[in-house]
Design a protein that fits this description.
Largest sheet: 8 strands, mixed
Radius of gyration: 28 Å
Structural class: alpha+beta
CATH topology of the largest domain: BirA Bifunctional Protein, domain 2
Number of domains: 2
CATH superfamily of the largest domain: Bira Bifunctional Protein, Domain 2
Strand content: 15-25%
Number of helices: 15
Distance between the termini: 52 Å
Strand order of the largest sheet: 1-5-6-11-10-9-7-8
Helix content: 25-40%
CATH class of the largest domain: Alpha Beta
Shape: elongated
Length: about 425
Amino acid sequence: MAIFRPRGTNDFLPADTAKWQELEALLRTMCREYGFGEIRTPLFEETELFQRGVGETTDIVQKEMYTFTDHGGRSLTLRPENTASACRAYVEDKLYGQVQPIKLYYMGPMFRYEKPQSGRFRQFHQFGIEIFGSASPAADAEIIAFAWDLYQNRLGLKNLRLLLNSVGCPECRAAYRKALQDYFRPRYDELCETCKSRFERNPMRILDCKSAENQEIAKDAPLITDYLCDDCRAHFQQVKAMLDAADIPYELDPRLVRGLDYYTKTAFEIQVATIGAQSAVCGGGRYDGLIKEIGGESTPGVGFALGMERVFSALAAQGSDIETEDQLDVYLVVAGSAASAAAFRLADQLRRAGLTCEMDYADKSFKAQLKAANRLQADWAVIIGEDELKSGAATVKNMGDGSQESVPLERVKQYLLEK
């Protein structure tokens, strides 16, 4: 009986992973330019971290976490996102004792049990950046500028929309919470069961419901921007002023609340209309209460995350792709055991010199090996057979123009390096 990969997961083959490596290299380069250092957290954490950090009213905690009990009776969860883990590390590893702010980035697999569909997987890969220890609007603007720079300038995506909102703070949200409950109460029975459970605990989450019926009910709900306190309003004005100064275009969306409970003040999302229903390619914002929520001192934070699979979907939808540099420099065409040994020695020398090199290990004919060199897009073929061994010179063929030259074996490496 054949065994297949689990639903909602992917195999990434060498042609794919070459592109992933280029994307990862681009992200690492940007992080160096912006001053972010990498953090690597465990693939699983204590379940309570995500319950307290992500929020018990979120779809992630209520429906999507891969949670299990280990042999010691502990409840553990495969990480569904990485901000909570980064906050836990900030507290546990005492990063608050270093020069603030702390700027971190991460990339790697995350896990959510949700219905697999275009742009959504049960194992997916996420990249994100976080700034801990700064309450400045400039930190918010830098996070947004990084995301915009990536999609607009480095990847060259078209038709981007940057949606921006402020979701306030606990103080000003109290009045907004009451206004929302007063609005939804007359139509409470029409809400879906999930949103009924959100009504008391976090009515703002009703605005994030994907149900068409609930969206219709919520279309005339009060706007958070009408309830912002002076501090939140001033913070939001400064964020917008910095984006204006950097010529980063944005659209105000007072109904944007994001899907996680920990957001305060700034919330944003970048969308690409050409990839269909799952149009968001990244999102983030400020979360000033999260580190305290998981047991640390009150510490401001802001960040964003993107699904790396979404990047490739967006590029493909626009007829674009990530270029790779995987062309082969040299293919060694050999015949006979003595020639194979000489070729193996030469391959080792070429690789040590920094050239990419392949040779035949399947006893193919000369003709089949040359075809393989063509298929692999080798720049050069080096032919070593019995005649070449006797003469002490290999035949070096330029696979581009078909010209070839006899080169002494001991000079093949230098010849290719010069070419």
